[in-house]
Amino acid sequence: MQHLPTPPGERPGEADAPLELPRTATVTATATVDEHGIVTGWGEGARRLLGYEPSQIIGRPATRLLADDTGETARRAAGHQAAGKDRWNGTVVLRHQDGRRLEQHLLAHRRTPTGGAATEWLLLCAVTSPPPHPENRPHGTPDAPGEQGPEEEPGGLRELKEWAFAQSPCILAVFGTDLRLIAASTGMERALSLTEAEMRGLRLVDIAPHPVGEELQERMRRVLQDGRSQWTEAFLPAAHAACADGPERGRPVSLTALRDGAGRLRGVCLTAYQGHEEHAERERMLLNEAGTRIGTTLDIARTAQELTDVAVPRLADFAAVDLLPARGEEAGATAFAGPITMRRAAVRSVLEGSPESPVAVGESSTYPALSPVAACLAKGRGALYEMTGPTLDRWAGEDPGAARIREWGTHSLMVVPLRARGTTLGAALFSRHHNPAPFTPQDLHLAEELTARAALSIHNARRHTRERTTAMTLQRSLLPRALPEQAALEIASRYLPADPLAGVSGDWFDVIPLSGARVALVVGDVVGHGIRASATMGRLRTAVCTLADVDLPPDELLTHLDDLVIRLSADEATPEGAPEGAGGIGVTCLYAVYDPVTRRCTLARAGHPPPAVVTPDAAYLLDVPAGPPLGLGGLPFEATETELPEGSLLALYTDGLLEPRDHDIDEAFDKMFAGLVRPAHTLDTVCDHVLTATLTHRPDDDIVLLIARTRALSADRVAAWDLQPHPAVVAHVRQNATAQLTTWGLTDAAFITELIVSELVTNAIRYGKPPVQFRMIHHNSTLICEVSDTSSTTPHMRRARFYDEGGRGLLLVAQLADRWGTRHTPTGKTIWAEQTVTPGSD
C-alpha cells in the first residue's frame, strides 16, 4: 500500500486555507485511529469541531467520541476493516465536549504511515464556520462566496454549476478558491463512489488520498494563482485505486479556471475526459470478461494466449504477446537501449492462421532500437501509432518483419509493455487492419488494463515456477540419492511431488546404517510448501543423521530434535516476536531402529501417522504412542519395541498418502493395506500397488512411502562370550575370536582382528564394570567386534607422549578399523569396531 500524504492543513507551517478563504470558512477536521481503535492523532479542525484538546483525547478509545450508544457505527467500520476495505464513509452522531450531539458525515481512509508496519485509519470531515452577523460586518464589505443562497448570490453555486457543466461535458467537479469541493457531477460521484454531499467541503487529497490527488491539488493551486488552465497526463484515481499499489488507472485530467461575468476567479473545474457511453459499457464488459478469462492458470503460455483471445476481435484485429527471457528484475530504461530479442508467446487474429505475424509462436524475433516496441519498453508505458509515413518507413528499414505490417494494411498500432511489480516481462501488440477506425486513447487505456492483468498473472507464474524449481532442486539434493548398503532390511521407496499449484513441501525420508548391523528408518514432514519448507527439511534431516550417529534411542532422538525445531522457530520469528505462521514451524516425524540379530524394532513418533506392518499372519497398524508434533516443547516422547518375524513388511509414509478427496480416512487405510498385501515379486511393485490403490488423482501434498522387508541374521553369524574381569581373559578371547574367524572362513582377517579384540577387551576390563561381554557379527562383507560393560563412561581417543606406556589403544583401533564408536545402552555402553573383509577371505 502506498503511504498516504498528510492532509493539507495538518502539515507544519501550512495554513488550513492556503488561498483566499471565504468568510464562511470551511476547514477539515482530521484525526487518526490505530487498528485497535485508539486515537493517535488530533488536528486543529477536530478540536474546533468537538472541543477536545489533543491531550484530552490522544491515547483514548475513539468510541468515546460517539453519541451512538449502540456502537453500530463502530461495528460497521470494524466490518470494513475485517473485509480488507481501504475506505469507509457514513453519517455518525458525535458528542461534543460540552455534551451536545453533532450529526456529521465522516470519510475514513485506511493507510500505512511512512516507516510504519501497522495500518491506521485517517478520519476526515468538513466543518463550516458560521459567517459573521450582518450587523457586525464592517461597512462596505462585499458579500463573500457562499454567504448568500444559490438563488440570491450573483455568480453563486447555481451559476458555477451551470458554467462548469456547459464547458466540460465529462466527469467534472468544481472547487472553490479554498480548494474545497463545491459541486460534483454524476460522473464524478460514480468514479469515486461518493455522493456530492459526502464530498462537499473536502479537498481532493481528503477525498482521494493518493499521490496523484496531491499532484492535481497542487496544479489547481497554480491555476488559481495564474488563472491559466492546465492539462495533465496524470490519472484521476478511481475509487478502487485510491489507496492501492500499482499504476494509477483513470482518465486524463484538465483543470479549467472559472471566472464570473466580471472576470474574477471564482473557482476551478476539474474535468476527466471519457468517451461515449457505449464505449464505457464496452470497456466495462470487456474488463469483466478479462477478469474471468485471463490468468486462470499458472501456465505462462496459456495466460498470454488468454490475453490475445480476449482482445481479438473486440478490441483489435490482431494481437500478439512477446516475452523477454526470464532474467529477474530489469535495470530500467537502459536495459532496452539496443535491439531487443523476445520470444513470441501467443498470437490471435481475425484471419485464420494469423498470417500477419512474421514469426510463429515459440520463435524469437529481434526489434531494432528505433522500433515502436523498443521505444515503449524503454519508456515503460504504452503508446499509439498511426502506421503511415515515416514511423513505418524507419521501422521497416531495419526490421524485415515490419514489412508484414504494411503488406496486410495495418493502419493503427498499440504497443503496451507487460510490467508487474517493477519487472518488465515483455510487450503486447494490438493492431487494426480490418476495422477502419483508428485506436483512441480510450482504447489504449483499455489495452493497458487488459495487459496489466495478464502481466500480473505471468509474473506470478514465473515466480512460482522459479521458486518451485529452486525448492524442488533443493529438496532433491537433500533427499538420499541412493539407499545405503545394509543387510538388515530390503528397502524400496517412492517420493511423489504434489500438484504444481500446491508447491513443493518438506517431506523427507532416510535410511541410516547403525552399529551392530542395525539400521534406522526415518520419515518426516515439515508443514508448508516452498523453499522455506525444503530448507527446514534439509536441516532436520542433517540433525537426524547426526543424532543417529551417536546411537541415541528413538525417544531421546526425538527430544533433541524437538529442541532444534524450537530454536529454528525462534530464529525465524518476526520483529514482533511471533514465529511465522501459527505455532511456528510444524514438523512431524517417525523414527524406527531395527536389529536383525534380535529381530526387534524400536519406534517413536512425533505427531506422525503410525507405521503399517504386514506379517505372514496379519496386517495391522503398529501401536506406537503418538507423541506431540516437534516444536511444542516440554512434552515427552515414548518409544515402543516389538518383534517382527523375518520377512515382515514395515511401511512408513507421510500424511499426503491418507488425504484423498473422495473417501474418508478409514477407507484410505483399507486401500493402503490392500496394496500392501497384494502379491508382488519386488518391493518396488508393492510401492506401486499402494500408490495405485490409494490415489485417484494427483495429490495436494507431497507423498513419501518407505517400505522395508525385515531380514534376520542366523545364529551361526553371531558369536558372543561372557568375560571374567581379569587381564588373563584377554588371551582366551583372542583364541576364541581366531577360532570363530576360521569357522567363517576369514583367516586372512585374523591378525587385525586379534589386535582390535585385544585393545577393546583390555580397556573394558581395566576401565569398565562387570559383567563384560564380547560379541562378533559377520554379515555380507562386514565383520563387527563389540565389547559391552555396565560402565557409562565413554572412552576418548588421546595422543600419547613418546615415553607413555599406554594411551594408544583406541588410536590403534581407529587406524585398523573402518569405523568404530560407542553406543550407550540402558545398562551401560558398547564399544564397537567394524572392518571390511574381502570376498577372498570369506
What does this structure look like?
The chain is α+β, with helices and mostly antiparallel strands and 842 residues long. It has 21 helices and 31 strands. The N terminus is likely disordered.
Briefly say what this structure is.
With 842 residues, the protein is of the alpha+beta class. The chain contains 21 helices and 31 strands. Helix content is 31%, strand content 26%.
Proportion in β-strands: 25-35%
Overall 3D shape: elongated
Number of DSSP helices?
21
pLDDT < 50 runs, ≥5 residues: 1-23, 131-154, 238-250, 328-334, 574-583, 800-806
Structural class: alpha+beta
Oligomer: single chain
Kindly state the number of beta strands.
31
What order do the strands of the largest sheet run in, or round the barrel if closed?
A: 13-12-11-16-15-14
Main pleated sheet:
6 strands, antiparallel
- Radius of gyration over C-alpha positions, nearest whole angstrom: 40 Å
